[in-house]
Amino acid sequence: MSKIPYTGKSQQARQGQTTQNVPADPLAPAENLPSENPLLEDPDALAARLVESENFVRNNRNLLLGLLALVVLAVVGAFGFYTWRNSQDAKAQASMFRAVNYWEADSLNKAVKGDGKAPGLTTVANEYGNTKAGNLANFYAGVAALKQSKYKEALDYLEDFSSDDYLVQSRAYALMGDAQMEMNKPKEAADLYAKAAVHNANEYFSPGYLLKEATAREVAGDTEGAIKAYDRIINEYPTAQEVAEARQYKAKLEK
To answer: Per mean pLDDT, which range of 20-29, 43-52, 136-145, 240-249 is the poorest?
Structure first.
């Protein structure tokens, strides 16, 4: 029995293949065989290639050093900025600790302006606004100003606040709407309430924001817009406690 392994090719198929000359002497170089690494087998070609590389480096030495310097500066600068920002955030948190305690105790003047020993929220927000703590100080300062009936100031601080927490950001939009309403700008207030309602819409807070939007649109004389806001509460949040009010107010507008 033949010990030749099965290759899956017929004799006719093998006849169509190109044959390569293999020397009888296994130590002799094969003829017409493609080389996988021609540079390694041709020292002259390899030497020429190395010379070209050396010439390129030599001719572009200043450019290459400049690019390397830029990369190093970028890495060092990024690391330095990250370290500096973290240290600034730590300072901001330490600075606003007592102010937040005053804010929670409803001692708003001390919370906002400081107590003579520790800085207030406005100082933290202005000096460390590019940090997380400084950003949060804007929110606290905005709420405090709103409670003190300083509506334009409250709006300014809340506009400077931003959060990745969708619920907190929605709350900020709603508070900005409250400030606009107090400044007798119901159209602007309604738009902010609508923004709060759709920002991470949910059944717990969105119906309340929509109810505020509808009320603001009524004050602005936008009856159609108010009805649409009431309809959203009724249709999108049928189990919300605001549904009863929405039905009642909508019915009055449609008379």
So the answer is: 20-29
Query: Pick the residue with more confidence: 247 or 19?
Result: 247
Q: Which two tokens stand for residue 106?
A: 């409803």
How far from each other are the two terminal CA atoms of the chain, in whole angstroms?
103
Neighbour tally for 29: CB within 10 Å: 8
Report how many helices (DSSP H) and strands (DSSP E) the chain contains, helices first.
Answer: 13, 0
Residue type, 154: A
Count of Cβ atoms closer than 10 Å to residue 46 Cβ = 14
Residue 216 is predicted with a pLDDT of 97
Please classify residue 32 by burial: count the beta carbons closer than 10 Å to its beta carbon, then call 0-12 exposed, 13-18 middle and 19+ buried.
Answer: exposed
Q: In 3-state terms, what secondary structure has residue 119?
A: strand
* SS3 state at 219: helix
Among residues 212, 211, 154, 210, the alpha carbon closest in space to that of 179 is found at 154
**DSSP string of 53-102, one letter each residue:** HHHHHHHTHHHHHHHHHHHHHHHHHHHHHHHHHHHHHHHHHHHHHHHHHH
Question: Could you count the other beta carbons within 10 Å of the beta carbon of residue 95?
Answer: 21
> Residues 203, 239: contact at Cβ < 8 Å?
yes
Question: What distances in angstroms separate CA 66 from CA 14, 74, 126, one per listed residue?
Answer: 59, 12, 38
pTM for the full predicted model: 0.66
Contact of 214 with 226, CB cutoff 8 Å = yes
DSSP secondary structure letters along 19-47: P----SSTTSPPSSPPPS-HHHH-HHHHH
